[in-house]
Design brief:
Chain A: This is Mycofactocin maturase MftC. The complex is a heterodimer of chains A (about 400) and B (about 100). Chain A is of the alpha/beta class and about 400 residues long. Helices cover about 30% and strands about 10% of the residues of chain A. Chain A has one domain: Aldolase class I (TIM Barrel, Alpha-Beta Barrel). Chain A has 14 helices and nine strands. Chain A has a nine-stranded mixed beta sheet. In chain A, β5, α7 and β6 form a beta-alpha-beta unit. In chain A, α4 crosses α6. The radius of gyration of chain A is 20 Å and the shape is globular. Chain B has about 100 residues and is α+β, with helices and mostly antiparallel strands. Helix content of chain B is about 30%, strand content about 20%. In chain B, α1 packs across α2. The chains are: A alpha/beta (about 400), B alpha+beta (about 100). At the A-B interface, loops of A face β2 and β4 of B.
């Protein structure tokens, strides 16, 4: 059996675990996958969070992806970071850069076993700030400058690909090179507030091809969180794990301890349990009904007869679910166009919506009226953070994983 | 094949792999048991890799108990026909730092 086949049946512990530490965020990005903004009063306490880290150490989860919300606004963030590293659970955290001043940057440069990922969704301020809010481009660049000045080794710049920034791929790469950072690009999902803007922001079919060609030509040193495996149907498989890892090698712990199958699936249907319950996280990972079900062999459903099924595996579960498509059918961005057909045929289907929403009612970062308004976005506020789905899991290069 | 082990290209610097010498699993490495074998994590390079057979896990884990690599392979009960594949996998593991020569 090939390794990837084993992965389908689940691992003893996750390879890639995302932990959203808080729903609080200083930004209000329009596509926030976790609809963050306000802190949830039920958030795990410092002691509880340390207990989770102890458990992850026992389960030999060697590193975690911390996100939010904006994780660095938690007052105990730095304490938890140190605690995790001291317990052999390495940390990569996603941030919009708000707290990465010179002092923190120097502190991070002195810390081993930590990775920093700065979110940036436009290579220019106008493209970025229309999605992430005014000033967010400057905040991200300032953080990159501080990290570079402090000598922090290779932060990552994480970009959610949108219709507006696909043409900027080369510019993103230049920015990464300028700050000695590694570029990471991931797929926009219709999750959280992303559902509200997906129709406007998700790349057009021609742009899907453009991204694929770019990755094939220049993607060697670019991380993807393995999030573009649906594009493998264009031809050669992209490097990495071409498989939905939800509940098998990946999962999400949310700020209140709820465990979901993946960071893009914050919805009751994908809730496996809460780690405050007896048995904690390990019990949920090993025995929850949902994860057991996700580890059953998949049939492929309507996609089973497609010649590309082996390469795309039917695409992303969350992308289907939050666009109202059946989970055993094509991905909405199926490169053969079956997704678009399915979307057009949705007639009257109720599109599921998560009831987990911490958006602030009044957008703090509402767009300024001046300047060209590229997007006609709704009234929802916006926020940051794009923890990764298959975020830096084990991209199965021959020997090793590319985070 | 049975010993289709992800060991990767033996392209990194360092001394050549010599199965006649004593080796050990690197102290910077942790092995996590998995249904297929084990997941390897190297705390120094932060790379994940995989040992794709339970027998290879035994070979790697117990290297330090034998005078050379061959003895560890034999002790794990690897069949003679599989030995070249295991040696090749171990050479890859030496190149990526999972195992190292011991003095």
């Amino acid at each position: 059996m090939k390794l990837v086949d084993h992965f389908q049946y689940g691992l003893n512990s996750p390879i890639c675990l995302t932990w959203e530490l808080t729903y609080a965020c200083n930004l209000a990005c329009v596509h926030c996958l976790s609809s963050s903004g306000r802190r949830d009063p039920r958030e795990l306490t410092t002691a509880e969070a340390k207990g989770v880290i102890d458990e992850l150490q026992r389960m030999q989860v060697f590193y975690i992806n911390i996100g939010g919300g904006e994780p660095t606004v938690r007052p105990d963030f730095w304490e938890l970071l140190d605690y995790s590293i001291d317990h052999n659970v390495g940390v990569k955290f996603s941030t919009n850069g708000i707290k990465l001043d010179k002092k923190r940057s120097a502190q991070l440069a002195r810390t081993d076993y930590v990775d920093v990922q700065i979110s940036l969704d436009g290579a220019t301020a106008d493209v970025n700030d229309h999605v992430r809010g005014p000033g967010s481009y400057d905040t991200a660049i300032r953080a990159l400058e501080n990290l570079a000045e402090a000598g922090f080794g290779q932060p990552k710049i994480s970009v959610v690909m949108t219709r507006q920034n696909v043409d900027q791929l080369d510019e993103f790469k230049s920015i990464a090179d300028k700050y000695n950072a590694q570029l990471r690009i991931t797929r926009l999902r219709p999750s959280g507030r992303g559902a509200d803007v997906w129709d406007e922001l998700h790349p057009l079919p021609s742009q899907q091809r453009q991204m694929y060609d770019w990755l094939v030509a220049k993607g060697d040193s670019v991380l993807t969180g393995d999030s573009f495996f649906h594009l493998s149907a264009f031809g050669e498989a992209l490097p990495g794990l071409n498989l939905c890892g939800a509940g098998r090698v990946v999962c999400l712990i949310d700020p209140v301890g709820d465990v979901y199958a993946c960071p893009f699936a914050i919805h009751d249907n994908f809730l496996a349990g809460n780690l405050r319950s007896p048995g904690g996280f390990q019990e949920i990972w090993e025995n929850s009904e949902l994860f057991t079900e996700l580890r059953q062999p998949q049939t492929g459903g309507a996609c089973a007869s497609c010649m590309h099924y082996d390469s795309c595996q039917g695409g992303c579960m969350a992308a289907k679910f939050f666009t109202g498509l059946p989970l055993d059918g094509p991905d909405p961005e199926c490169v053969r166009g079956f997704g678009e057909q399915a979307l057009a045929a949705r007639d009257g289907v109720e599109i599921p919506k998560s009831d987990v929403d911490h958006s602030r009612s009044a957008p703090r970062n509402s767009r300024t009226p001046k300047g060209p308004v590229m997007l006609t976005l709704g009234t929802r506020p916006d926020k940051s953070c794009d923890p990764s789905p298959l975020a830096n899991p084990a991209a199965l290069g021959p020997a090793s994983a590319r985070a | 094949m049975a010993a289709d082990v992800d060991a990767g290209p033996a392209d990194s610097a360092g001394p050549a792999f010599d199965p006649l010498l004593p080796y050990r699993c690197s102290p910077s490495v942790a092995l996590r048991p998995e249904p297929f074998g084990a997941l390897v994590y190297h705390f120094g390079t932060r790379k994940l890799s995989f040992l794709k057979t339970p027998q290879l896990v035994v070979v790697v884990r117990d290297l330090d108990q034998y005078p050379d690599v061959h003895a560890s392979i034999e002790a794990a009960g690897v069949s003679e026909s599989q030995r070249p594949a295991y040696l090749s996998a171990l050479a890859g593991l030496a190149a990526n730092g999972t195992i190292e020569e011991r003095s």
